[in-house]
Amino acid sequence: MSDQDNKPISTYDELQTKIAAKKKEFDSKQQASYWQRYVIRRIPLFTIPMLVFYSTIFALGFVKDIGSKAVTSLVPSLPFSVYISQDVLCSLFAVVLVHLVFVGLKYEGMSKTSRLLHKLAFNLLMMATIYSISALIYYEIHAIALGVVVFAPLCILPLLVDRTLGWTRQNDRFKLFSSKMQGLIELNLARESLGVEFSERNILEYIGILEQFESQKYNDTVSDSFYILSQVEKLKPQA
Length: 239
Hints:
The chain has one domain. Helix content is 81%, strand content 0%. Helix 2 packs antiparallel against helix 7, helix 4 runs antiparallel to helix 5 and helix 7 packs antiparallel against helix 8. Keywords: Membrane, Transmembrane, Transmembrane helix.
């Protein structure tokens, strides 16, 4: 810790400098963690519709009035599917992985335009990947059942990973406390303009927000770390 960090706070300007520095730190961490949040929350948006589709077709197969022939007619043909193979799918996975890692490392320093383009690229890659998976499933003997088996985990696992690792909550926490710091900055500016004398209370407000942040961070970490264990405990039959 530098001498500047240990310098006593005795004026509004000194306090505002501290608050602004902490807000900048929160903003930086929020941007750095945003890409993981974006990716993990977007994956189910692509997989859930496919799960609903295959589940609906699978359920219709049990309806006597419709029959298997009618169910088969509901499954659309997949153009260009003859060009899709396991090698193509593996290549897509590799491209998606490289893209995710590259953007994750560079996201914080990117411009808004670059971020938007990379989001678009990710969405296109996800659509291509989901389409390729569907195309490979399409020609299997038990395509409908296999579709349910494949897409169900792809819907659940991202949500479970996000809940366990806490990416979304971490990003939201940085955003929340950055907003609190901004609110405190504006409040102190108003106090200073109204001639309210600087006092210990102003410093305690700032310290209180930092303590709230650390407390929420600890609680979220514990909650996320033991999430799966807590769910398993709930499933156990009560004695």
